[in-house]
Amino acid sequence: MKVGIPKELKNNENRVAVTPAGALELTKLQHEVYIQRGAGAGSGFPDEAYEKAGAILLPDTESVYNIAEMIVKVKEPIAEEYNLIRKDQLLFTYFHFASSEDLTRAMLKSGSVCLAYETVEASDRSLPLLIPMSEVAGRMSIQEGAKYLERPAGGKGILLGGVAGVKPANVLVLGGGVVGTQAAKMAAGLGANVSIMDINLNRLRYLEDIMPANVDTVMSSEYNIRELIGNIDLVIGGVLIPGGKAPSLITRDMLRLMKPGTVMVDVAIDQGGCFETSRPTTHQDPVFMVDDIVHYCVTNMPGAVPFTSTLALTNATLPYVLMLANLGWKEACRRNEALGKGLNIINGTIVYKEVAEAWKLDYVEMSAFLA
């Protein structure tokens, strides 16, 4: 198969979808790997490393799309890529369709096959291709939150861990999944007082067992959120509905309950955000203020630490990339149920229910295309 790896065009996105090691695994199996010049530079992988692995370097994004049967990316295509995507071409990347109607309609129009990392789902309901980036984003959310709590950045001027004789910051983590767990661990490790919320009592019991003493577990409800946020310095939004829009847990009217300079980091922004006042931002311009509350809503947080992120992501994605290249998407998805759940759009038809519901569009069962 002809596998194409374009350079990521999203703002400050420095990750790359396939490392030189991954390219070598593909070429060893007689697949043709085409990579855009400079695609790996941001992650520390020079063009020469790909050439040694047997990949063919191409000068621009258009050249990669023109020749490839399968495009492997990190982030969703942006507008300037839409017209490069052709009918029957397989795209394997993060899409997060529920956060962008324009992207959804563009991929429907292209006639391509869109296989989304974020909805590949194992039998235990875990999301193996989302987990590594959720780990990175969860940990980064505390780094970024601590930075924007500084007064020059618009925050309250609070040191997350405090010092002797001065209380540490209070952190509220919404969601006890991978993002929330990693965020709580990081915040607790820095000495903050942490409250982590979830609607799953069994998950809260688990978190109660594994977390240090400065982490409290709280059942998530609107009432409990309103009771807590008046005394919170940093809020981390880490809720997830696989493939669907995130629920708005912090509404606009709740902002008046918070003190000026409170920081909110919306890790769920890829899926529409879990704060009503959230809107997507970039690493170039990461924050904005609403009612004196700092909002950090960068849609590709792991892109700021591309060396770590690329290795973590490709460790998880490469086995699936090899499977798709070896068998083609239909046979690979027939044989691997987890991979099949990654199918979101096939040749102009939505096959993932939550995506269709997000934009009130028609939906067809994926099985109709795999028969």
From TrEMBL:
It catalyses: L-alanine + NAD(+) + H2O = pyruvate + NH4(+) + NADH + H(+). Residues 4-137 form the Alanine dehydrogenase/pyridine nucleotide transhydrogenase N-terminal domain. InterPro entries: Ala_DH, Ala_DH/PNT_CS2, AlaDH/PNT_N, AlaDH/PNT_NAD(H)-bd, NAD(P)-bd_dom_sf. Keywords: NAD, Oxidoreductase. It comes from the Bacteria. Its EC number is 1.4.1.1. The keyword 4Fe-4S does not apply. It is an enzyme of class 1 (oxidoreductase). Residues 149-297 form the Alanine dehydrogenase/pyridine nucleotide transhydrogenase NAD(H)-binding domain. PANTHER family: ALANINE DEHYDROGENASE. Belongs to the AlaDH/PNT family. This is Alanine dehydrogenase. It comes from Ravibacter arvi. The lineage of its organism: Bacteria, Pseudomonadati, Bacteroidota, Cytophagia, Cytophagales. The gene is ald.
